[in-house]
From TrEMBL:
Lineage: Eukaryota, Metazoa, Chordata, Craniata, Vertebrata
One record GO biological process: double-strand break repair via homologous recombination
Listed InterPro entries: DNA_repair-scaffolding, DUF4503, NA-bd_OB-fold
Designated name of the protein: DUF4503 domain-containing protein
Organism this protein belongs to: Chelydra serpentina
Domain DUF4503 as annotated: residue spans: 1-385
Gene3D superfamilies: Nucleic acid-binding proteins
GO CC terms, sorted: nuclear chromosome; nucleoplasm
Pfam families documented for this protein: DUF4503
Domain of life: Eukaryota
PANTHER family to which the protein is assigned, alphabetical: DNA REPAIR-SCAFFOLDING PROTEIN (PTHR34347:SF1), DNA REPAIR-SCAFFOLDING PROTEIN SPIDR (PTHR34347)
Length: 391
């Protein structure tokens, strides 16, 4: 029988790490246990996907009326269909580790696989553990999600994806991992994800299903090497060579990242605009100076901005050799816009569309916003990958 024990007490990231090192894999006794509810597979799919990853147990099951010498007992029985949710004393000091802290023979450590192995496994709702390098993150905008419950995508890779070529099997060089609001991040991991450098993270018990990997409740993210694990061909080291992305082609899907190059064949004039920003703090909401209409005032710096930095938004249509019969629209980054418009302005400082037509751009790192087949069109947004380096 499986049960989930909840300790409803505020814990810091250091406390959680300390408790994990003390309790994981150990036989413990808990004080003040009471039953909160009895739940079933249909009502708690996430919990039972974790239970399924622990089945069958490593030791033979004790079945009344049957011989305990039969090794087949532990493989013939189906996994449990119900689970008790228990409440224990909120003070972690009431959790006592028995048998001098030895690892229990009931404990089944997570099997750590490479990303390539995980992609090759059947598409079922199952848990998976892996070690991956985060190279890009993207916030998922949802009106119903509060600021403290942000949902976002992490685009990750590892040595097994980077070393192979994208062939008929369709193995990409990067994969998206969805971080749901039900998954809680500790402070150290969040700091690593908000850093400008890419980081290596251990994903424990993420959910693989419906064509994607999801971090949900009971998924653990860590910057440290797991305490107890069984490794297949997982590579725990950070890659030193530059990360490679798949080039845009006919197999590229929405919500992925890729590289592309091409010739500018058109400009989306309806979305093109420019705005002045502060040359000190990059504030893009400057005000007209109340006393001097020819200059701006920055409320953040509380100073007059005499020489503002002009920033622009520009979407262009590309003719891409990898998608010759497809309309490819790309929203460019400021650096690429400046390169495209360099020495293309007229005497009054404006730009003519014809001045940028035919210019070559690329390689561009892009996020794939949309892919349609009728008509054949791909919407891209140029992105900046996280810089190489350790946090």
């Amino acid at each position: 029988m499986f049960s989930e024990v909840q300790l409803q007490t505020p814990c810091s990231a250091e406390d959680i790490e300390q408790h994990s090192r003390r309790w994981e894999g150990k036989s413990c006794t808990l004080a003040g246990i009471r039953i909160l509810q009895r739940t079933t597979r249909g009502r708690a799919l996430g919990l039972f996907s974790l239970i399924d990853s622990l089945w069958p147990p490593l030791v033979p099951l004790k079945v009344p009326g049957q011989s305990q010498d039969c090794e087949a007992i532990k493989t013939k029985l189906p996994p449990p269909s119900f689970c008790y949710i228990l409440m224990a004393q909120p003070d972690p000091r009431h959790v006592n580790v028995g048998e001098e802290g030895q690892i229990s023979n009931l404990y089944l450590p997570p099997t750590v696989h490479s990303l390539k192995e995980i992609l090759q496994v059947g598409d079922f709702n199952q848990r998976c553990s892996f070690w991956a390098q985060v190279i890009y993150r993207r916030l998922q905008v949802k009106c119903s999600v509060s600021a403290g419950q942000r949902e976002f995508w992490l685009f990750v890779t590892d040595f097994t994806l980077q070393s192979g070529a994208k062939g008929n099997c369709g193995t990409p060089k990067t994969i998206p991992v969805y971080f749901a609001s039900s998954c809680v991040l500790d402070k150290k991991v969040m700091e690593a994800l908000t850093n400008a450098c890419h980081c290596v993270i251990f994903f424990k018990d993420a959910l693989r299903g419906n064509g994607r990997i999801i971090c949900v409740e009971r998924t653990v993210l860590s910057l440290q090497k797991p305490l107890l694990y069984t490794a297949a061909e997982a590579d725990f080291s950070e890659m030193t060579s530059p990360v490679k992305l798949d080039e845009l082609d006919s197999t590229t899907q929405a919500n992925s990242i890729c590289t592309t190059r091409g010739t500018i064949s058109g400009v989306n004039e309806s979305t093109a605009f420019s705005w002045p920003t502060c040359n000190r703090c990059s504030n893009g909401k400057l005000e007209q100076h109340p006393q001097n209409r020819g200059s701006y005032y920055c409320s953040l710096c509380s100073q007059t901005v005499i020489l503002p930095v002009l920033k622009m938004q520009l979407e262009v249509f590309l003719h891409c050799p990898s998608r010759p019969h497809c309309t490819v629209k790309v929203k460019l980054l400021q650096k690429t816009i400046s390169s495209v418009l360099m020495s293309s302005s007229s005497e009054d400082g404006s730009y003519e569309v014809k001045s940028v037509l035919g210019k070559e751009v690329g390689l561009l790192n892009c996020y794939v916003q949309s892919v349609t087949s009728h008509p054949s069109c791909v919407g891209l947004e140029e992105i900046a990958l996280l810089e190489a380096g350790r946090n």
